[in-house]
Amino acid sequence: MKRIVALCILDSDAGVVEPLLKDVTVSHGLVTGLADDDAIASLRDQGIIVEEVPEARMEETAEDREIIHGMRKARSQTSFRGFTDALPDIDLEAPQFFLIWLKGPLLEPWRDELGKLGIVLLEAYPGNGFRTRMSLGQVAEVNALSFVAGLRLFSGAETVADFSNISAGVGGGARRGVRAFEESPEVVMDILVQSPDERGSVENWCAVKNIHILGSGRRKVRIRITADDPRLAEISGLPGVRSVEEFVEPKPNNDRARVLVNVPPVQTGVSGLTGAGVIVGIADTGIDDLHADFGTRIIHRIGRGRPGITTDPHGHGTHVAGSVLGDGAASSGLHSGMAPAATLVFQSLLDNGGQLGGLPVDLNDLFGEAYALGARIHNNSWGSGTFSRYTAGASEVDEFVHDNRDMLIVISAGNDGIESSRTYSATGFVDWLSIGSPATAKNALTVGASRSDRTTGGDSASTWAAWMPKRYKNPPIAHETVSGDPESLAAFSSRGPCDNNSIKPDLVAPGTSILSAKSGLAADVNFEEVVPPPLPHLTHTYGYMSGTSMAAPVVSGCAALVREYYVRQRNHEPSAALLKATLVNGTRMLKGRDATALPGTSPNYHQGHGCIDMLRTVPSPDNPELALHFIDNWKQPGTHFTSTGQYKRYAFKVGATGPTPLLRVTLAYTDVPGRSLQNDLNVYLVLPGNGKVIGNHGRNTALPGPDHENNVEVLSLENPVPGNYMVVVFAYNILWSGQDFALVLTGGNVGSLTQV
Asked: Are residues 220 and 295 in the same domain?
């Protein structure tokens, strides 16, 4: 007999499921119980979505068994950077953190039983694991519950990040991700605490131990220490410590873009959209506020790295801003950005040492500053090379969006794509697992770079081998040009997945040989090529740059257009999740061989859900047959999910298919901060005849069934037959009550969504 979970999304499903199971527990539309192989096959034959519950991912130690049976003191040990040290005694008279594994998702009857024992689950882990805090007296009671597969003490070993996955730079010779330390180098470490209440005790402990504290945030303490200092091992064993990781210094993730993403000329726009009324925040090096392309639309300038100074001697920030909202005034409208009527809040991060020293210890402070000034889209073309790890910074991005549901944070994926040193990809193809931080944040919109269609200008005609010979040594990628093939990806564009197997980037946009505004203070050498004004009476110039830094502002500008669309044309104040769902829903999968390389799925780890395409994103005169319907319930708390197994069903009708024979549905939601999904929603499409299609059904996975790793799910149906359809949003696991979501439906001759 196997323990299974069955999803009952049609009224008739429960009557089919429950008679075939033993030891049944029901939570709304989710049923779990024991079934043999014949029963499982029968359920699947009848169209029921069934999953087998995985074995608990736990390794119980002898120490855990002693604690569970009443031991009052415990001493834990962990290996840290090659040495083992005893950690402080753990006093189990006081509540301590434990990991609990359940025999399925958090069903409401199980939550009630845990609640009777005073247990509150704090964080979800893959495989039905949960972190909680409990006293010695509660341990045996919890372990005796029939639905608990096991538990163990939250150990010091799992608070320490694997530093072998961190790279200070990618170069020739050494394997990617291996960092060579000097004998005793100083490193900057981030200590993430279990809760804000724990921060003070960690700060006090560091002070007593004479550890240099560089700064603190809500849930984080940043310290400077030598890499082989035994006090690091002690830190990892402190009861209030959630994780310890090295802080990798962030760096910038260094006309045609409008055409490639199907944004028409400024004069026509997308349904007349120009970004008017939308405030975009950008945190970058600096801004040339005298450049004609910005006019009077820079409404706030904040010098974070050089107090009171926001100039741009680097040029990166001005270029990024031009791609978002430059109006092309210095080129008679020729080189305009995506949203030429949007206004700007600019946060200059450049410090006097040429680094991004204006970034705060806690990224909540960065985003909160722009949010308070009215920004609801925030572009971040910078990041750290942490190779797909979910870091403290990523958690802070997730936290801010969770607390401010209408702020879309756009982040460049990173420029760490490499072919010369590979683990997963074939020879001549860029490897996986190179997403930077904080781009691994699940609530962010993470942007990779596709190639421009340029064949002249900047470095567009260079081959990748000539451009970066240490990274790209083998064909086909080595012999392909930097630009010229818009169906392919930039070789440097960081690939996913994240370390929790979630799909990043979310989408891609052109990022090679992008022409945008040039700061008057920036040296020409900072650009691939500098372009003089097209007319003698114009004085401001433009320059070519490449990077996911250039792709992200294309998406931020398009997000401004989508936000304007919802506010102006649909009279709706959109959530970040709705903007994200709408942009992802409109993507198209690129067909280049590097964009469809192994694992060759859709979505995939190279381009995510595809390249942004505004023609497919919102209705426009160029695509008048496109219908867009949506659900966005962030301001309606009475409609939020509160418990596991709940679902919402929306019926719609497809008529005779017109010029847009693609039906597309996208679900996006803002999850609670945490490396894994804390609240797990899935989307299903019920076809005429009651067949079911699962969200992200084309993703790379060894196991069929719902997606439990991503908070964006897409359903695509080519040439849908006319008839009655239903979209179902299902709450597979709800750890924290009050989960909202956004749902977007597009297609030709598609009726509106009606809840049933």
From this structure: no
Strands 121-125 and 148-153, how do they pair?
unpaired
Which among 142, 159, 176 is the end of a domain? 159
Q: Helix crossing, 363-372 with 392-403: angle to 10°?
A: 30
Q: Are residues 329 and 352 in the same domain?
A: yes
Residues 193 and 132 occupy one common structural domain? no
Phi, psi dihedrals of residue 205, rounded to the nearest 5°: -60, -45
- Please state whether the peptide bond connecting residue 105 to the residue before it is cis, i.e. omega within 30 degrees of 0: no
Rounded to whole angstroms, the Cα distance separating 49 from 43 reads 8
Containing domain of residue 116, as a range?
Answer: 62-159
Quick: pLDDT tens for 633-684: 999 999 999 999 999 999 999 997 666 689 999 999 999 999 999 999 999 9
Residues 6+ positions from 441 with CB-CB distance below 8 Å: 390, 393, 394, 395, 397, 398, 401, 409, 411
**379 in a structural domain:** yes
Q: Residue 86 belongs to what H/E stretch?
A: strand 83-91
Candidates 319, 294, 463; CA nearest to 379 is 319
Question: 274 and 188: one domain?
Answer: no
Task: Tell me: do 173 and 307 sit in the same domain.
Answer: no
- Name residue, tokens 């873009």: 257
Residues 6+ apart with CB under 8 A from 153: 63, 64, 67, 74, 76, 90, 96, 97, 98, 99
* Token representation of residue 508: 């891609």
pLDDT digits (tens, 9 = 90+) for 351-377: 999 999 999 999 999 999 999 999 999
Contact assessment for residue 314 and residue 251, using Cβ atoms and an 8 Å cutoff: no
In this structure, what token pair is assigned to residue 117?
């024992």
Rounded Cα distance between 198 and 85, Å, is 23
Rounded CA-CA distance 284/313 in Å is 12
Count of the separate structural domains present in the chain:
5
Q: How far is CA 626 from CA 571, 608, 609, 664, 721, in A?
A: 19, 23, 20, 11, 17
Residues 635 and 316: their CA atoms lie apart, in Å, by 37
Phi, psi of 294 (to 5 degrees): -100, -15
Which amino acid, residue 9? I
- Cα(709)–Cα(346) distance, rounded to whole angstroms? 34
What is the H or E stretch that residue 22 is in?
strand 22-27
Of 26-40, 150-164, 192-206, give the lowest mean pLDDT range. Answer: 150-164
CA–CA dist 610, 225 (Å, integer): 42
Q: Are 290 and 368 part of one and the same domain?
A: yes
Compute φ and ψ for 232, nearest 5 degrees.
-60, -40
Q: Considering the entire predicted model, what is its pTM?
A: 0.93
Boundary (domain end) residue, out of 553, 568, 585: 585
Residue 499 sits in the same domain as residue 560: yes
Pair 442, 536 in one domain: yes
Q: How many helices (H) and strands (E) does the chain have?
A: 14, 35
Around Cβ 723, how many Cβ atoms within 10 Å? 11
Q: Which two tokens stand for residue 565?
A: 């669309």
16 in any annotated domain: yes
Segment 722-744, tens digit of pLDDT: 999 999 999 999 999 999 999 99
Quick one: tokens of 81? Answer: 């950077």
Strand order in the sheet with 529-531: 514-517, 542-545, 529-531
Asked if residue 594 belongs to a domain, the reply is: no
Strands 220-226 and 186-193: antiparallel
Residue 662 host element (H or E): strand 662-668
From CA 640, how far away is CA 736, in angstroms rounded? 11
388, 561 contact by CB (below 8 A): no
The enclosing domain of 543 has a CATH number of: 3.40.50.200
Report the CATH number that the domain containing residue 235 is assigned in CATH: 3.30.70
Residue 613 within any structural domain of the chain: no
